[in-house]
Structure formats: structure tokens, C-alpha cells
């Protein structure tokens, strides 16, 4: 890969050749993929993108760590819509708001970006099996992307994983191991199994290429905004890989001169599980927390990508905000009713955090903000129904309808 220099440890700085099965540093630190930006600038321009018809994450191949000969994986990942959300912006009291709906990826979450990258690198590594642990979305995204590419998968999920996500896994043909314990228990078992059988590792805290897939959400946002940098980008945070990837993508664009400044990140976590935000707020090392939130995709008490995530928040002079489950579900309804976007609880946590910061007066009135919805609401319909209520159920006659409207105080004009 002419455009890739090496992998570098974010802890000790040791460098490694960027081979397809690259994992962690000998010191235990996570690696960062380092590019030759001078070379990239010589072969990649904004004009290149204008003339490119590949509207997937792979339109940015010059900024991705794949060989020229590696084919695009089969599923159409990326180029999700960026909606201008004027009605919601008015309610929040800010000048401009955009909503990036990544729940419209093939398996309905942003994590398809990482899994597509895992498939590409597994091809390069000559692997036949890919495995991971996940709270749900990484699992279903891996299962779907791997199935389309012909890989066998072994996937470890905590027993609390929503049935919608487990249904995806089973439909995609994965061998699913439901672990009776926390995400930490699930991760450790998957790691031991991967080490034992030598499967290709899709765990984001071990495989440095996955953040490179996730960073494409930042590349798309900036291109869709015609390279005009917003003041803030809000995103939900669990393991830390997504916010780290978002920041890496922004820094890549800045390094090659596609953007002239960097936005501030908003790290939104569930109040019942916020070890990274707590570390920032207290200016202390992070410590494990219990996983007390219905937002299962970010219920990570022991974040495995903490170093990169904390670095992203600090380097961007970012804001941290913790939201209750009630605030998360209120944001789900608000997004649905003002934007027509249905996000799962973890997927709308960024929007919930933005709403809270606006209410606290911490976002300037003239600010431009992007809120990333990381997963689709159909992943977890049980919580949506619990908070929005059941539909009106009546016999098929007008008298019953009128009575039901009267009982619910519905006035039809």
C-alpha cells in the first residue's frame, strides 16, 4: 500500500508494518494507521471525487488502508443521507442542524463501515473465518457483510442483546454464542476463542483497521456539506471506536487540505454507563462502570478503545454529556416527529446529548451542528413501543373510532 506508512502504537509510539492481520502493540496499546499524506495529496483531489460514480464508502480508497487490487466488498455500505433538520434546529434554538442517518446502511448501523473493512482485510489476509464480540450492531453488521462475501462467522454477544439483532445474526448464518454475562465477559471469551482457532479478528479494540472504516462517516459528512466544516459533530459513544474513527477521518481531511479547520466533537454517553465521559469531566483515568442503560449498543462498562476515544475528545476540545434513558427515548420520539428518522436508543444518544447541551446553553445560537444517528430503530422495537405506547385497537366501526378518539382526547379537524 503505497499510501500507508505503518501502524503506530498510541501508547508507546512503536511502529509496525501494515500487514492485513495487524493487531495490537506488544505493550498492549492500540495501533493507529499512519498515511503518507504528501503522496495522497499528489493523487487525490476534490475534483477526483466530483467525477467518481462510486457512491459508497469505497469512493475514498486513497484514504483507506486497502490494496489497489482488493475488490470492494459486496454490500453497498456508506453514502447514507445527510438531512437538513430545520424544524428540529428551531426547537433546539440553533442556527443549522444536519442529521446523518447511518441506520440506512445494509444491516442498519454505522458499524457496517467497520465490518466492510474487516471483510476487505480478511480477504487480503487469506482468512476463511471472521469472529468478534459485540453488544449487537457490530455482530449483525459482521454477519451480514461476511455472508455476502462468503466468510464463515463466529459471533459472541451478551445475553441481553435485543432479539432483533440476534434475528439478523441467525438469518445471516452466523454461529452465535450468547454469553451469560457482561460485555466484558463476552469480549474476553471471544478473544480466547480467536486466539485458540486463529480466526480473523473483527474486534475494534484489537484490529486497527476498523476505525479506518468508521472514519468514512466523517469523509461523507464533509463532502455532503461541500467541505464547509460544522462547529460541532455529536455522536453516541460506547467502546470508543466510532468517535475515534470520526476524528481520524476529520484529521485526514485536514492533513490533505480538503478542510481548513476541525470541528468540536460532542461525546454523548448513557448516564448509567459513561466511563469515558466521566474520565474527561473529572480529568482522571477512566474506570470501569456497570452497564445500566437500555441503549445496549453503547452499554460498555469497560471500553476497549478508550485511548483513541479520549484523545479524540481532548484534541477536538470536545464536549461530554451524559443522558438518562428517559432523555434518550424522548430524543428518539423527537427525531421521529421532526425529521422522520427512526433511530435505536444508542443511535439517537448523540441527538439526546445535543438537546441537553442546547437546553443548558452550552451550544452557541449561531452554531452549525451535525448529529449522527448510528443505528436504526427497528433494531429495538420493544423499547420504542414501551415509550411511545400501543396503537389504538378497536372493532371496525365508526362509533368505536369516535369513542377511542374521545378517550384519547384526539380532536380531528
UniProtKB/TrEMBL annotation:
It catalyses: O-phospho-L-homoserine + H2O = L-threonine + phosphate. The modification N6-(pyridoxal phosphate)lysine is found at residue 111. Pyridoxal 5'-phosphate binds at residues 137, 374. Coiled coil: none annotated. Its cofactor is pyridoxal 5'-phosphate. GO terms for molecular function: L-serine ammonia-lyase activity; threonine deaminase activity; threonine synthase activity. Pfam families: PALP. CDD domains: Thr-synth_1. Pathway: Amino-acid biosynthesis; L-threonine biosynthesis; L-threonine from L-aspartate: step 5/5. Gene3D superfamilies: 3.40.50.1100. Its EC number is 4.2.3.1. Residues 77-375 form the Tryptophan synthase beta chain-like PALP domain. The keyword Lyase applies. GO terms for biological process: isoleucine biosynthetic process; L-serine catabolic process; L-threonine catabolic process; threonine biosynthetic process. Keywords: Amino-acid biosynthesis, Lyase, Pyridoxal phosphate, Threonine biosynthesis. Belongs to the threonine synthase family. NCBIfam families: PRK08197.1, thrC. Catalyzes the gamma-elimination of phosphate from L-phosphohomoserine and the beta-addition of water to produce L-threonine. This is Threonine synthase.
Amino acid at each position: 500500500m503505497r499510501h500507508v506508512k505503518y501502524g503506530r502504537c498510541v501508547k508507546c509510539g512503536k511502529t509496525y508494518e501494515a500487514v492485513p492481520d495487524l493487531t495490537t502493540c506488544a505493550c498492549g496499546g492500540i495501533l493507529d494507521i499512519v498515511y503518507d499524506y504528501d503522496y495522497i495529496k499528489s493523487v487525490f483531489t476534490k475534483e477526483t471525487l466530483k467525477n467518481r460514480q462510486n457512491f459508497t464508502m469505497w469512493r475514498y480508497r486513497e484514504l483507506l488502508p486497502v490494496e489497489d487490487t482488493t475488490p470492494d466488498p459486496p454490500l453497498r455500505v456508506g453514502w447514507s443521507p445527510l438531512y437538513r433538520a430545520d424544524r428540529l434546529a428551531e426547537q433546539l434554538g440553533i442556527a443549522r442542524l444536519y442529521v446523518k442517518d447511518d441506520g440506512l446502511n445494509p444491516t442498519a448501523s454505522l458499524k457496517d463501515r467497520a465490518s466492510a473493512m474487516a471483510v476487505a482485510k480478511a480477504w487480503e489476509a487469506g482468512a476463511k473465518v471472521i469472529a468478534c464480540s459485540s453488544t449487537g450492531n457490530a455482530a449483525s453488521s459482521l454477519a451480514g457483510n461476511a455472508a455476502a462475501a462468503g466468510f464463515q462467522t463466529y459471533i459472541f454477544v451478551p445475553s441481553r442483546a435485543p432479539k432483533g439483532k440476534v434475528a439478523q445474526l441467525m438469518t445471516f448464518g452466523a454461529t452465535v454464542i450468547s454469553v451469560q454475562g457482561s460485555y466484558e465477559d463476552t469480549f474476553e471469551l471471544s478473544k480466547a476463542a480467536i486466539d485458540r482457532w486463529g480466526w480473523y479478528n473483527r474486534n475494534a479494540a484489537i484490529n486497527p483497521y476498523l476505525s479506518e472504516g468508521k472514519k468514512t462517516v466523517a469523509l461523507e459528512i464533509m463532502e455532503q456539506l461541500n467541505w464547509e466544516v460544522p462547529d460541532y459533530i455529536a455522536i453516541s459513544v460506547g467502546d470508543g471506536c466510532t468517535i475515534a474513527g470520526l476524528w481520524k477521518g476529520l484529521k485526514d481531511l485536514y492533513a490533505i487540505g480538503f478542510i481548513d479547520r476541525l470541528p468540536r466533537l460532542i461525546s454523548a454517553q448513557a448516564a448509567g454507563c459513561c466511563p469515558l465521559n466521566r474520565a474527561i469531566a473529572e480529568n482522571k483515568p477512566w474506570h470501569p462502570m456497570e452497564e445500566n442503560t437500555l441503549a445496549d449498543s453503547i452499554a460498555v462498562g469497560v471500553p476497549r478503545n478508550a485511548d483513541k476515544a479520549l484523545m479524540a475528545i481532548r484534541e477536538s476540545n470536545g464536549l461530554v454529556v451524559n443522558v438518562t434513558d428517559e432523555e434518550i427515548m424522548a430524543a428518539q420520539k423527537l427525531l421521529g416527529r421532526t425529521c422522520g428518522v427512526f433511530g435505536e436508543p444508542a443511535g439517537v444518544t448523540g441527538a439526546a446529548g445535543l438537546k441537553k447541551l442546547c437546553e443548558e446553553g452550552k451550544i452557541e445560537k449561531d452554531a452549525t451542528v451535525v448529529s449522527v444517528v448510528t443505528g436504526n430503530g427497528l433494531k429495538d422495537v420493544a423499547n420504542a413501543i414501551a415509550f411511545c405506547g400501543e396503537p389504538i385497537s378497536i372493532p371496525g366501526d365508526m362509533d368505536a373510532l369516535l369513542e377511542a378518539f374521545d378517550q384519547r382526547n384526539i380532536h380531528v379537524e
